[in-house]
Amino acid sequence: KNEVEQSPQNLTAQEGEFITINCSYSVGISALHWLQQHPGGGIVSLFMLSSGKKKHGRLIATINIQEKHSSLHITASHPRDSAVYICAVSYGNEKLTFGTGTRLTIIP
Amino acid sequence: DAGVTQSPTHLIKTRGQQVTLRCSPISGHKSVSWYQQVLGQGPQFIFQYYEKEERGRGNFPDRFSARQFPNYSSELNVNALLLGDSALYLCASSTRLWATEKLFFGSGTQLSVL
Fold first, then answer.
1. Mean pLDDT, range A35-46, rounded to an integer
2. Which of A47, A66, B27, B65 is 20 to 30 A from B52, alpha carbon to alpha carbon?
């Protein structure tokens, strides 16, 4: 059983829609990462957070420590946002545990 | 500044062969970690090295080994390749040891084992 669960697995939306991707984990963590992976494999780190909320451009990441849950939001989605979004957590050591990813497709 | 670079980008091997993958971290980064990503799945942690010492190892067999050099570049070696080793191998670097630092990933090496 994967210790990090993401939902949905796949998401298709129209350009301009507000997007939410969810991540749940099983026990207390020291940090949570949101990553973006485009076709071809390269991964870009979007956010690293351990509490509260972070915003960068149209992207917002939140984390609720008590509920062991994080969300990634994309406002005014654009076709270039199409990618796989991966949540990864650190349980206090060097190791990262990854979710299986959410494949996002934005239709023009 | 150059990002994390990995070589080669693609590799085809046959079962039983050995392979070496290379990673150069961002200048000033002392931590390098390796991940295996099988098609359709999230990455799996293989190793982390910091200051040339192994500081973490995932659930991979002893056929997998790695090392970090004095310039902080790293190699991942896989012996006695199996079909199941076919995957994208990713390297990431960061300034410090703990996974509470932002990670910078390379583009990966796509390994195909025939």
1. 89
2. A47
